[in-house]
Design goal:
The protein is an alpha/beta fold. It contains 6 helices and 41 strands. An 8-stranded parallel β-sheet has the order 16-19-22-25-28-31-36-39. Helix 1 crosses helix 2. The longest helix is centred in the middle third of the chain and has 26 residues.
């Protein structure tokens, strides 16, 4: 079987890069897709062709898997779809129920990627995904394979009514199977944190409840290592040459990469950490992902936040429900807020066209692009974006970021020498070639 990839070259704000190149968790999306395919098919699938337009799938021949390269899907979703599709012996297309709580909450907002349709079997409203299986080449008549998320509701905040807008405790739907098209930085957050970490925790919890032998093995391992159940090596995966200070507290499920340094007093809860990451004294990371090569000095705090590779989040900084691009710097004492204090209403964020739309989230942070330099003591309001290659210097006039910041508004144009900070991530219709500034 071969695989055919439909490229989506649209840029995702504020990163100014196609979705396939953005890091989700600790890997670029295109490599994450490769890993999932290796897991499901127990080996690589040769690339038959790369298409620039969806109509080119008409040229597909033989047994093939076809998907768009901006899709985040996990092994559970792809495995379910392929198993059901192979049973039919027909050409099939993935779909999900429009009223599925997880997909309705996270996959549909800010997205135009999923085609609404009606399930011919029961008249149910469904959403078609750009993911096909052809047993004998392209045919126009395809059967939808409806993949449910099998989600469970999990709480992450217990707050007073004034913050939750009288909706009760704040919860997320942790899915057993995940699919989302990356068309916004919010989708990166949903994919990495909600679908990635919450989904992993839910599946682990469900598996341990359903398999008594596994639960006994988990208990035995914890007793043997004299650790709490969720701090044993059965739950926490640690890479080679990684050093962890004895006073660090790590609860799983968690994964830490190779050559990492975890300092004294660090607290990690349900996190994924890449390779060559340094977490200094007193850092607190809860349900967050950190890409390879990152550095967090003492007392940095991440809460439900995704940080891409080679980025520094300086001391005493607090990031909540944010996405930070690669090769960036967030200065000491900065705070990225996640709650509208005055106008208590659901937060809006930008879609792929840059237009603001409701996200359906009461709390949500902001986004910083690639190759940014954010000065110390900055405050970013919920849902705001800082475009790639921007430099912000704290001042009396600009310490609170209450609106999106574009490259043209970067302080390096007016402070110091404009050429001192190179631009690496121009918009799609621009071409800029500069040397590295990091």
């Amino acid at each position: 079987m071969q695989r055919f990839i439909i490229e989506d070259m649209r840029h995702i704000p504020p990163f100014n890069q196609p979705a396939s190149l953005l890091t989700v968790g600790t890997q670029p999306l295109k490599l994450l897709q490769e890993s999932v395919i290796l897991t499901v098919f127990r080996g690589a699938l040769a690339i038959g062709n790369i298409f620039s337009d969806i109509d080119q799938i008409r040229s597909v021949q033989g047994q093939a898997l076809v998907y768009r390269d901006n899709l985040y899907f996990d092994a559970e979703f792809l495995g379910y779809f392929y198993a059901q599709a192979a049973k039919t012996g027909r050409a099939c297309r993935a779909a999900f129920p429009a009223n599925d709580p997880a997909f309705r909450t996270y996959s549909l907002p800010l997205s135009g990627a999923f085609q609404p349709a009606i399930d011919p079997a029961n008249g149910q409203q469904i959403c078609l995904v750009d993911l096909w299986y052809f047993p004998n080449g392209y045919v126009p008549d395809v059967q939808p394979i409806i993949v449910p998320s099998d989600a469970e509701e999990m709480g992450f905040y217990s707050v007073p009514d004034f913050m939750s807008m009288e909706q009760g405790d704040l919860t997320h739907f942790a899915p057993g199977r995940s699919i989302i098209a990356i068309e916004s930085w919010v989708h990166v957050y949903f994919a990495a944190i909600i679908f990635g970490l919450f989904g992993r925790a839910m599946r682990f919890d469900r598996y341990s409840k359903q398999h008594n032998i596994f639960s006994l093995h988990l208990l035995w391992k914890a007793v043997l290592e004299q650790r709490q159940l969720l701090s044993s090596s059965k739950v926490i995966e640690v890479g080679k040459n990684t050093t962890i200070h004895p006073t660090a507290v790590i609860t799983g499920p968690a994964k830490i990469g190779d050559n990492c340094s975890i300092g004294p007093g660090v607290f990690l809860d349900n996190c994924t950490i890449g390779d060559n990451v340094t977490l200094d004294d007193g850092c607190v990371l809860m349900m967050s992902t950190v890409g390879s090569g990152c550095f967090l000095p003492f007392r940095s705090a991440l809460y439900l936040t995704a940080v891409m590779e080679n980025t520094i989040v300086a001391q005493n900084t607090c990031l909540q429900m944010c996405v930070i691009g690669r090769n960036s710097f967030v200065g000491a004492g900065s705070t990225f807020t996640d709650f509208n204090l005055i106008e208590q209403r659901p937060i809006r964020a930008a879609n792929i066209a840059g237009d603001l739309e409701p996200v359906g989230q009461v709390v949500l942070g902001g986004a910083v692009g690639h190759n940014c330099r954010i000065g110390a003591g900055m405050v970013l309001f919920p849902g705001r974006m800082i475009e790639s290659d921007v430099v912000l210097v704290a001042s009396a006039q600009r310490r609170v970021i209450s609106r999106n910041v574009t490259y043209e508004e970067s302080d390096h144009h007016t402070v110091g020498t404009g050429s001192a900070h190179s631009r690496h991530y121009p918009r799609r219709d621009e071409k800029v070639e500069q040397e590295e500034s990091w």
